[in-house]
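Model the whole thing, not chain by chain.
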Amino acid sequence: MSTAEPLTTADPLSAPDLGVVGLSKQFADHRAVDDLSFSVDRGSFFSILGPSGCGKTTLLRMIAGFTLPDGGNILIGGRSMQGVAPNRRPVNMVFQHLALFPMMNVGENVEFGLARRGVQRGECRRRADAMLQRVGLAGASHKRIDELSGGQRQRVAIARSLVLEPTLLLLDEPLGALDLKLREHMKIELKQLQASFGTTFVYITHDQSEALVLSDHVAVMNRGRFEQRGTPQELYYEPATAFVAGFVGANNHIVGRLTGVDGAIAEIETDAGWRVHARKSGTMTVGGSVEAFVRPEVVSVEREAALLPQDHVRYAGEVQSLLFDGANSAVLLTEERSHFNIRVALPQTGRLASLEVGERVSFSYDPRRAICFASDGAATSATGSSMPASSHG
Amino acid sequence: MTERSAWLTTRRYSLNTEGGMSRLLAAMLLLGVVLASTAAADDSKKLRLITWADYVPADIVAQFKKDTGIQVEVTLSNNEEMISKLRATGGAGYDLAQPSQDRLTGVQSEFGLYKPIDLTKVKVEQFRPEILAITRQITTLNGKLYGLPYLWGTEGLVVNSKRAKVADYPDLCRPDLKGKTSMRLRRPTLMAFAFAAGKDPFALYSDPKAYAALMENVGKTLSACKANVRFFFDNKDQLLNGMRAGEVVAAMMWDTGGWTLNRENPDVQYVVPRSGALGWLDTFALPARGRNDAGAYAWINFTMRPDIAARITRNVGNWTAARGTEQLVDQRMQAQYHASFPEGAFKGIRWYPAIPPGLEETEGRILDRIKAAN
Amino acid sequence: MHGVWQRRLMLTLLLAPALLWLFALIVLPHVDLALLSFRERTAPREYQAGLAQYRTFFTEPLYWHVFVRTAIMSMLATALTLVIAFPIAWVITKVARGRASSLLFVVCLIPFWVSETVRALGWLILLRESGVLPVLLAKFGLTAVPVELLYHDTTILTGLVYTSLLFMVVPLVSSLESLDDSLIEAAYDLGANGLSILRRIVIPHAAPGITAGCIVVFMLTLGNYLTPNLLGGKNSQWFTELIYTQFIVRFNWEQGAAFGFLLLALSTAIVALGLRLSGQRFVDVMRRS
């Protein structure tokens, strides 16, 4: 811990690095953050995942101190942040577009915060150089910002914050501006950086893949509230709400009425008369409207129905289009009777790579690996259609 | 990079320059403008007159048009501007000008802006002979006459007698009048203070060294006096407004200004200074490249007709050089005239003699120093 | 080859009117003025080449005095304008939002809808002894009697700053607009306070705008004739006035031309010095403004 920012009050070792209690923020006619409480453990990588407008940026800005909450409290390292200006908080932020200072070189960017704390010039230089070395930018301190690649800038932005040894590092969708390949690369790098520094990261994003790959814990945020908190696996396999199911991972979204319940399995019929089965989550009444989510990878597809598992309901369909993406290849099928479009992952072995558009196939899935919720109209608006949400927004 | 003041002056200059290429260009531009605007107009039906504000009443212009068919186009100006404009075009652009008589021969010998007057075309008998004689003496150069008298007056002191007692120019510098007087930062002021100091600057015109020494002295007097001056006025209205507002209580000023204020407020009076009034006289002069001399002579003869001259006097407040107008103006003006210039006093007026070339450079520097004094 | 030649011809033809204009109305008169300034009068209508006009300038302390005074006052006016315009530009770009911001900008612009003469005359009415402000001051007992507020150096400076304000606000607004708010927040987040943000982030970012505004205002002020003349009255002592006097009142065009060139040299020198001190390049600055 930095000696320049002494922590007082609560025992710094037992308190979580970030505690949020009953936090609220109202903007004109909409509630950006709605009575939110949570805490983030020391040294963990915590992501807040949500669509744009869900309030995650407001939440982050309140933690950094740029926006004042209407109610509630924020504790960092056990210390209340009420009345503490952003430049006095033991928190640093990596901005969406990084906000590196173009009028300074790399070294000066990293030294900026140290100099503001009154650290001697030589010491500034030494610490900045050490930090640049740790992020793999040794010797770059004399470069101008516009001479750096996107990934290098990213590292400068993180170095600039981490050199101050903050209790908490906030990251505001820092990968959003990068191209896909670099983004994949930086995900790994960020995770390694966090692991090696051990600083608590609070990361906000609308990209579920970033959240899942990077985080120890993820909170899915919607309309100013957390829909669910948990490990990436919990969110993926045990979504608590229809919103989470729709938002996390590419999911087939099937809307219909509950026609019957068999133990844990619900039977659903769509308006077009397609009958499907899925594991029941929460209470629901027969005849009420429900929505089911079937992940592409739980569906099996075969040219011949006999090859499908015996104990699952089999459906017939026609290949609508092929979505070739290497190991992530999928096929879009149209169910024969209801003309419902369903996305199905192809085996990674490439066994069915020769499927052609218009070909008739059979498919089935294990209903225990699909999930259904009682409909709550608005909550599902994030996905909206039967087409899975794109993973890169 | 356009540097603004240089641009200002060069713009003025580019249309007007004496020298080579740009003069050609300016002439072409001018030609274009002239052709475009007056292609149909006949030169002999138009008289372009550059003169002082108020000197040419509109009804006189209208009557002249009716009598002769000539339209008078008036441009308002002052001595310096008149000379600058004519110098810029080498004496073109106007058919008749009205500079003061002391500013004629010096300018003529230096820049050749005017052409001689042909007295055979002038009705000489319309002029007051004593005034014509003065003008002939002052505006003759190398045996040729360049000016005819038009309007004359004197410069002296205008004072609000309720608030100040002033008898001569140096009184303007009395400590009790600090910040309450005004004058022009022009050569007449130098002359006036020289006479008030008991010297005769006119006599020294021919002796540049002695003249420069005298001007140095006057300059020092006036620099010391600067704290007394609220502002140096550039035009009549500026001073009249200052006196009306009470910000100025005494000033060096033309007689007509004093008479104008006197009509509004009897406390304000025109005072002939103890050291004497300085006489100014504005002339008719023919620019060297004027195009309508006949029209110019017609205008001269017309305005010097007693009835017309009397109307001008009534309008302007100053007396013209025309004969027999005194009976044609109202009682008060006659009274004012006789009060200011009793029998014989006319002879005592000190008329500005012609300024020799180069003299104004000396004076200019003195005036600049007064302006810069603290 | 043919294509290149044609394109060049096209470019030349397109630029021809502008070049002709520049040549005829700026270059030619200046050349003529330069020739004039190196001429001295020996006798009526007789001239010879010489440096008399420049010699007069250097030997007459008065002209020197006015020259230096004009330069210093102009620099002072420029600095004051910057200090006043900066907060205005800041409010327009960073504090006010939407309509309020446009409205503020219009408020800055409104005085420029009337001519400079009318504006200066307005000040005259406001500040003269019998004018609005002195009378009010006396009425409220702040001064015993109405005092003359005209004809002081402060009055001239006030008028010059007022006249120049917009020319400073515009480049400042455009350079501050391009300053990403997140840079300020980032600096704040890293522990900077208002002053260090201004010094390390805002001013370096706005430097081209600041330099452009200063150059424009300085040149306008140095070359201003009307405002110092009207508001300074008997004490104005502005160099342009000397030029005007030489040309129009004294008919001494040779001297006036020399003065004009000296002023041109002065403004060029000071602008060059300013650029060097602020580490800016003229071309960049003019592109930004």
